[in-house]
Design goal:
Elements: H1 13-16, E1 35-36, H2 48-55, H3 70-80, E2 87-91, H4 92-104, E3 110-114, H5 119-127, E4 131-135, H6 144-150, E5 155-161, H7 173-182, E6 188-192, H8 207-213, E7 217-222, E8 234-238, H9 241-248, H10 258-268, H11 271-294, E9 298-300, E10 306-310, H12 317-326, E11 329-330, E12 332-334, E13 339-346, H13 350-367
Parallel strand pairs: 1-11, 3-4, 3-5, 5-6, 6-7
Antiparallel strand pairs: 2-8, 7-8, 9-10, 10-13, 12-13
Amino acid sequence: MTDIRTTAPAPKPWIMGIAPYVPGRATSEDGRKVVKLSSNENPFGTPEAARDAYRSAATELERYPDAAAVELRAKLAAHYEVEAERLIYGTGSDEVLHLAAGTFAGAGDEIIHVRYGFAVYEIATRRVGATPVIAPDRDYATDVDAILAAVTERTRVVFVANPNNPTGTYTDGGEIARLHAGLPRDVLLVLDQAYTEYLEPEDDDGGLELARTQPNVLVTRTFSKIFGLASERIGWGYASTEIIDAMHRIRAPFAFGIGAQRAAIAALGDDAFVTRSREHNREWRDWFTDAMTAIGLRVVPSKANFVLVLFEGTLTAEVAYHALMAAGYATRWLPGQGLPHGLRITIGTEGELRAVADVLAAEVAKAG
């Protein structure tokens, strides 16, 4: 007699331990379209050359893209002065982060990330059955000593975002070098540099050079932020040949389409767009920080294209979040990441930031 099971397939327990990623909202609670300052997108949109390059792929939709991304890797290699054969690519840098965890960790292993780190780190860790280990922060910033103190014989990967998301904090090159020097050689240090193009040249943390010269460093980057291609989900990573070869073994063969590849290549060639975006971001991030400080709110020092505003007085982050949403502005409230008292706010246009500052000033005054 056939044994008919009465229960559904059971997911692995570590999968059920994952809190699903929650993206930034683009609509209000009642469905209204709002100004989206919740996902750190470029307020200037996309370089026109990238849009044109994307359109050029419309006649080739029946074709598979180049699975080896030869042209894109060559352009990246020339632009960043790295070796094309040591590059990997994926559906956003998120996939590259998942590939790192999946290649080098598994059940019984540990992966370290900082408190108030990018939500994907814990998801990538739990997805492969590894145990997330959270290193305490130092006033919302990465604490190298805390990370090193958390290392055990089970540690396989360390994730560090620089600048960090969602806090915007930056760890200088000396501290990154000290972190690497203190890690065992069999631990992979992943430097997530999604926001690195917003840094000033003197703020280079040395990540690419570490990845060039050390066998246990992976740098990840993305086209979703300053290059204005978030929709196309184009990420990449750079590491030793051995690391890249191992990660390629579990990489999906077609990470992104023909149009996405062409758009990314074109975006890399538009230095003026990148410079304009960086300069606008620096000017209005400083302005918004000063505006928040003037009304009594604390802002965590940021070098990214967003700021984390802390609500430590009478006005709560939750009330401020809903007030901004009612006014037509979506920001990122992060109680699920241990920040119920903070809002992460993208540096948008001048008009958007002035309007947000006015709403918050009014709410602070109302709260007394």
